[in-house]
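Anyone up for a design puzzle?
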């Protein structure tokens, strides 16, 4: 079994968080080290992160889930998510590409659309749809909710 540990992020972890978010190509907006949980290998190497991000409309988003490529498929993201979910308010939302939907469904998230979308996620969904159309992106963005 692969050994790693989880801990609340420290300010000194922010450069590693930012670098991993950039490396994985996920949304770099709203990164605040104080909201992050990080994962470290048994040797102390920074290997992953995730945060609970509040929005102005009162919703909270599971966001910035990122794991270094060499550590993927070893339970790191699932452990980060479980840690964040333990402290998360409900409902909780997230956005992801379609191919990741089944991964988040394992944690109880379900796809939502239309009238069920809070204002922030409705705007984001429309914008992502337009960008996807204009750039001919082969994959759509999903908005998911955990009740």
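Challenge accepted. My sequence:
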């Amino acid at each position: 079994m692969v050994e790693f540990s989880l801990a609340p992020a420290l300010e000194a972890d922010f450069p590693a968080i930012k670098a991993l978010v950039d490396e994985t190509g996920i949304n770099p907006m709203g990164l605040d080290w104080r909201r992050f949980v990080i994962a470290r290998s048994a040797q102390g190497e920074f290997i992953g992160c995730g945060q609970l991000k509040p929005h102005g409309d009162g919703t909270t988003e599971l966001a910035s889930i990122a794991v270094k490529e060499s550590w993927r498929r070893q339970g790191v993201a699932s452990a980060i998510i479980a840690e964040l979910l333990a402290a998360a308010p409900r409902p909780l939302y997230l956005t992801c590409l379609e191919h990741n939907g089944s991964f988040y469904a394992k944690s109880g998230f379900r796809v939502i659309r239309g009238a069920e979308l809070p204002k922030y996620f409705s705007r984001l969904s429309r914008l992502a749809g337009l960008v996807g159309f204009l750039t001919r992106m082969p994959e759509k963005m999903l908005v998911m909710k955990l009740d």
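A detail worth pointing out: Residues 119-135 form the longest helix (17 residues).
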